[in-house]
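In the design runs reported in the main text, the only information available to the sequence generator was the tokenized backbone. The following block is the verbatim input for one such run; it is reproduced so that readers can re-run the procedure and compare outputs position by position.
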């Protein structure tokens, strides 16, 4: 009788060869789903860090353009004829900045500076009134994106 029960179990196992494949297939599908979840989360972290770095470069580029603008205003206050052509300021650890030529229409002066930090450009356009006695009155201070006009 024991032999008869053993034969029934053996025959059942022998005729059902897909029994282990279902478990193996389930484990593979579960592993694939977990791997996809992990990869999608790590990709999100990567893009978040990339966006933060881009924002930091934009802030640094804008700060560099502003410091060049202060330098341009100072140079004009010292000598109004000193800004007759583009002046490039190279700051190796940070980036480069260009003080574009000065345009003057009546008593309104327009200064343009262009800065690049890690391939992120910033343009700053400032208008000021020259009162004639060496005092500049800034009327607008605007930031623009892209390449200067």
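Verbatim output:
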């Amino acid at each position: 009788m024991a032999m008869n029960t053993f034969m029934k179990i053996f025959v059942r196992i022998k005729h059902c060869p897909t029994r282990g494949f279902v478990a193996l297939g389930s484990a593979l599908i579960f592993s694939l789903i977990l791997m996809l979840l992990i990869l999608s989360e790590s990709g999100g972290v990567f893009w978040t860090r990339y966006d933060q770095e881009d924002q930091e470069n934009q802030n640094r580029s804008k700060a560099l353009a502003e410091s060049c603008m202060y330098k341009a205003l100072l140079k004009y206050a010292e000598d109004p004829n000193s800004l007759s052509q583009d002046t490039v300021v190279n700051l190796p650890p940070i980036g480069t900045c260009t003080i574009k030529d000065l345009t003057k229409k009546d008593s309104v002066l327009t200064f343009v500076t262009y800065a690049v930090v890690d391939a992120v450009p910033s343009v700053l356009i400032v208008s000021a009134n020259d009162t004639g006695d060496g005092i500049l009155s800034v009327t607008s201070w605007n930031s623009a994106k892209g390449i200067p006009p």
